[in-house]
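A quick word before the example. In earlier lectures we treated sequence and structure as two separate objects. From today on, think of them as two lines of the same record. Here is MSHA biogenesis protein MshJ written that way.
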Amino acid sequence: MKERLLQLFERFDTLSQRERATIAGAVLFGLLVIGYLALIDPQISRQAAQAKRIVQIKNDLATLETQISALQAQHKDPDASNRAALQEVRKTMAAIDMRLRNVQDSLVMPEKMQEYLEGLLARNRNLELISLRTLPVAPLIEQSGGGQDLDGRGAKGGRSGKPAPLSGNNLATNIYKHAIELRIAGSYGDLLAYLEAIEAMPQRTVWANAELVVEKHPRCVLTLTVYTLSLDKLWLVV
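And the structure line, produced from the sequence above:
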């Protein structure tokens, strides 16, 4: 093992200064990505998993509310226990709504994603935006039934095409991923600074993937996919 390392160091010493800089930059970028995956990404992933569990619980409660309502409909004068159970379910669902909103508020709003990413780019004039495009909205929880929500609506919500408000009787039954893919060019240092700026923002986004290509030293191209979470399906196309 020691001999292998010595051979690698000897080969590194024989490289030109430009080749050394290219290798060093690639190592730095790799260390940043590894650090993000080890420290930042697990926290955001746990938050997304928590939101997913909350949505599943809410869907179960929605089913329970439907069953209780059906029992009430069978009697002209529902008994007090049924009414109390229904009221308790609605209180629980209201609390879950608040937890979902808190998760959503900690992330960048979908309609602000483009402004958010371009604003960070504007801080470094050495970076060049090659392309920026939105990706199709994807549900955090996959559902069967032809792509419909549990309330039977398609991708545009109600008849008006607007997302339904979140309430005890009109439920948002999923959380949606709104993603943007952007390609930016610059030096290793400038691209690393951009990624660090994204991590430092108070409102967060989630990295889906990142790919770095060295075109011609010192110019590199970074393809980055980031997404945020929202209770609404509607997505502004860039």
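Notice the following. The helical segments are 2-13, 17-73, 80-105, 113-122, 188-200. We will return to this example when we discuss secondary structure assignment.
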